[in-house]
Design brief:
By secondary structure, the protein is mostly helical. It has eleven helices and no strands. The protein has one domain.
Length: 264
C-alpha cells in the first residue's frame, strides 16, 4: 500500500507528473466545453423535435434515452474511448525509469519484486480512480447547473459509470505494468505496448480470415467490449466484466513472472 501511495505522491510532487496532470485537465476542459455540452444540447433539441427516434437506432445508441441526463450519456460514450488511452499513457512508467536509474535495487531491500510490481499497478489504479471521479464530478456539476431536477437521478446512476470505467482501464494499466518491466523508459514502454497491440490485432485478423469467424478472438484485445457497452446504460453492463478481469489477470501474471526473472 505504501508503494501505491508513493505512486500518487510521485504524480503530485514531480515536474513531469504535474505537467501531465495539468495537460489532462486542460484537455478535459476542452472535451467538456466543445464535446459533451454541445453534443448534449444537440440531443436535447433532437429529442424535442423527434429526431432521436430516427437517429439513435441508426447509431446503435438507443440506450441513451435511458440515461437520466443527456450530459451523462455523452460522458459515458466519450469516457469509454478517452480514458483507456489516457490510462495507457499515464501508467507507462511504472518500473521502467526506476530500473534505468538503478533505484529498483534499493527498493528490493525493503520489499519483494512482486510487491513493487503490484504496488505500482495499484498506485496507477488509484490515480485513474481519481481521474474518473473528478471528470464525473465535473459532469454532475454541469447537470446541476443546467438541469437541477435531474441531478439526483444522475448521482444515483453514477456508480454504474465508475465501476465500468475502472474495469475498463484496469487491463491497460496492467498491460503497461508488464511492458514497463521490459522497458528502460516510459517512451519505450509505450512503444512496446503499441507494437504488441498491432501484432495481436494482425494475428487475430489473419486467423479469422484463414479459419473463419472465431468468437473468442473477438475479445482478445483490451477494450474489445466497448462497442457493446456503448449500447447499454445500467448494471447489465457488468455482463462484460469478465473480459477486462481476465485481461488484467493475464497481464499481471506475465508481468509479475518477468519482474521476478529480470535483472534489476
Amino acid at each position: 500500500m505504501a508503494l501505491a501511495q508513493d505512486e500518487l505522491s510521485r504524480l503530485l510532487s514531480t515536474r513531469r507528473g504535474m505537467v501531465s496532470l495539468i495537460g489532462f485537465l486542460l484537455i478535459w476542459i476542452a472535451v467538456l466545453n466543445f464535446g459533451i455540452l454541445p453534443a448534449a444540447a444537440f440531443f436535447v433539441g433532437a429529442s424535442d423535435s423527434g429526431l432521436t427516434e430516427l437517429l439513435l437506432p441508426r447509431l446503435g445508441l438507443e440506450a441513451w434515452r435511458q440515461w437520466p441526463a443527456p450530459e451523462l450519456a455523452v460522458y459515458w460514450v466519450i469516457s469509454l474511448y478517452l480514458l483507456p488511452f489516457s490510462a495507457l499513457l499515464a501508467s507507462a512508467d511504472q518500473t521502467a525509469s526506476d530500473r534505468s536509474r538503478g533505484t529498483l535495487r534499493y527498493l528490493v531491500l525493503r520489499c519483494s519484486r512482486t510487491e513493487i510490481f503490484l504496488g505500482r499497478f495499484l498506485g496507477q489504479l488509484v490515480i485513474m480512480t481519481l481521474v474518473v471521479l473528478i471528470t464525473l464530478a465535473s459532469v454532475l456539476i454541469v447537470v446541476m447547473l443546467y438541469s437541477p431536477d435531474l441531478l439526483s437521478a444522475a448521482i444515483a446512476r453514477s456508480p454504474v459509470i465508475v465501476v465500468n470505467l475502472l474495469l475498463l482501464v484496469m487491463p491497460y494499466i496492467a498491460l503497461m505494468a508488464w511492458v514497463s518491466v521490459m522497458a528502460r523508459s516510459a517512451r519505450q514502454a509505450t512503444m512496446y505496448a503499441f507494437i504488441l497491440w498491432i501484432s495481436v490485432s494482425l494475428l487475430v485478423r489473419y486467423l479469422q480470415a484463414k479459419f473463419g469467424p472465431m468468437p473468442l478472438l473477438d475479445w482478445a484485445l483490451p477494450g474489445s467490449q466497448v462497442s457493446e457497452l456503448v449500447r447499454l446504460s445500467d448494471w447489465q453492463t457488468l455482463a462484460y466484466a469478465p473480459i477486462p478481469l481476465v485481461h488484467t489477470l493475464i497481464f499481471l501474471v506475465l508481468g509479475g513472472f518477468m519482474m521476478r526473472q529480470r535483472d534489476l
